[in-house]
Amino acid sequence: MNKTELIDYIAEQTGLTKKDSAAALNAFVDGVIETMKKGDKVTLIGFGTFASVHREATTKRNPRTGEPIDVPARNVPKFRPGKGLKDALG
Q: What's the alpha-carbon Rg for the chain, to the nearest Å?
């Protein structure tokens, strides 16, 4: 399912217009991103937790040449599924 299909699904399930459904989905995504940028996490009980995790700088090797490559420190997104989602999937 891509974003357009998700918007269609939301519109169908809620009775909202596609425009309103798109606005709601975009507001949700923007809210999650802004919260994670601040270093906080978003927890949806039964679904999961979106969080930002800090990765330290490290040195890796190029598999073709064996040349070392410096990888800078950065924050990466992480999603941990909740019990409800795990149970729903089997």
A: 18
- Confirm if 63 and 44 have CB atoms less than 8 A apart: no
6, 9, 89, 2: which is closest to 48 by C-alpha? 89
Tokens of 46: 């039964």
User: Tens digit of pLDDT for each residue in 32-88?
Assistant: 999 999 999 999 999 999 999 999 999 999 999 999 999 999 999 999 999 999 999
Beta strands in the chain, from DSSP E residues, in sequence order = 42-44, 48-55, 58-61, 68-71, 74-81
Residues 6+ apart with CB under 8 A from 40: none
